[in-house]
Amino acid sequence: MEDRRRHDRTGSGETGCSRRRFLAYSAAGPLALAAVGQAPPRRAAPGTTRQDFVVQETPSRYFSHRGNGSEEMKWGPVGGYGDLIPNDRFYIHNRARPPHIDRSSWRLEITGDAVSRPRSFSYADLLALPQVTLRRTLDCGANCSAFFPELPPSGDGRWLPTGYTQWHFGAVGAAEWTGVRVRDVLAAAGLGHAVDVRFTGLDEIATPEGTVHYSEVVPAGKALRDDSLLVHHMNGADLPADHGYPLRALMSGWGANTAVKWLGTIEASVRRLPPQGPQRNQVLIGPSYPTPVRPTVGRVRSALELDDGVTLPPGDHTLHGRAWSGAGTIDRVDVAIERLIAPGRWMPEMPWRGATLLTPPEPLIWVRFEVPWQGARPGRYRVMSRARDKAGNVQPRPADVPWNQHGLGYDGHAPLYLTVLPPRTMP
Ligand SMILES: Nc1nc2c(c(=O)[nH]1)N[C@H]1C(S)=C(S)[C@@H](COP(=O)(O)O)O[C@H]1N2
Ligand SMILES: [Mo]
């Protein structure tokens, strides 16, 4: 029985009480588990519910609930948003309840052997530094993890970790972020030569080994770049509690795991720093990786502005979507449609067709695209989009994405299912 549940994989996050309780306990992510294949804990912490790790309301119209602290953005409403996702519609990936922080007494501590004048900053101190505003996509490294098979294709018998978050396309957003440069803050503490920078949050994550703070080690070469920020505003407003109030990191173009929320400490080190807590699991391991690889730069990905399973009327449609990459500007998107002709058999309905890019390609923020679909007739379909960036990365076929144990870095194209109904059966 236990075994069956572990193999269960509906992607809806509604796979039964036992699994949900486990998700609540395990801090809701593939990255929160210290070891692969460990048995699910027997019970949840008292009083936990699926929403314990999220402060704001997350209505099902706008969010898919992927587990405690994992609220995926639904793509259907995105067409109404403009380039930027409103703060209260932005996906959430929390491994613990956001800490309650009083900004007037909060301090950011700067420590480490690479600074000669360790000091702390108040919020007002940060506002006195030069302010920078950037439009950036924020994309979870584990976005699209649901499109990996649960077992590696090589059949070596290792499962994706039990309780890993089954994100579809929606662990991504884009916002206008305002803050200060990491570099300016560290310079004010007397930064010398640094190798690594550790960003540590004030949230307290329960793990089988005890409570840890979320932290990310970023090489100094990245952390000290012009567009590596400590942000306090999101789309012109204070950061919401779920998104890191009062201060979070933003490493432009890198996986969102490095965007540490509720920052408390930054340590600059003259030596390599060992990853701690969830970051220890943020590695690509599996049959295709003889040695573990730490993913950094965000993958090329794309999505259609449709909810999975949506119904459309027959006739002419324009399909909209967005494509993004941490490695460079998107310069091409193609869309293909297949029709279900018999159980399990799909036939091309619209072969790969170049989409029109609707916004001038801008680095590190997604580009919007559209493609016409004329004369859609009743039936069941699956639609796929495939983007390419200027660095030459193209989204591969699903079968060509190397599987990894933590479900990280999926960049293949993936199907979105929809139904075209005869006119009179439209809801
Ligand atoms: N302190 C802290 N920072 C964190 C996390 C966290 O659990 N704790 N999750 C990380 C991950 S994996 C992601 S994908 C992003 C999600 O940011 P968002 O919730 O603002 O969308 O925050 C990152 N920063
Ligand atoms: Mo994430």
UniProtKB/TrEMBL annotation:
InterPro entries: Ig_E-set, Mopterin_OxRdtase_euk, OxRdtase_Mopterin-bd_dom, OxRdtase_Mopterin-bd_sf, TAT_signal. It holds the Pfam family Oxidored_molyb. Residues 98-270 form the Oxidoreductase molybdopterin-binding domain. SUPFAM superfamilies: E set domains, Oxidoreductase molybdopterin-binding domain. This is Oxidoreductase molybdopterin-binding domain-containing protein.
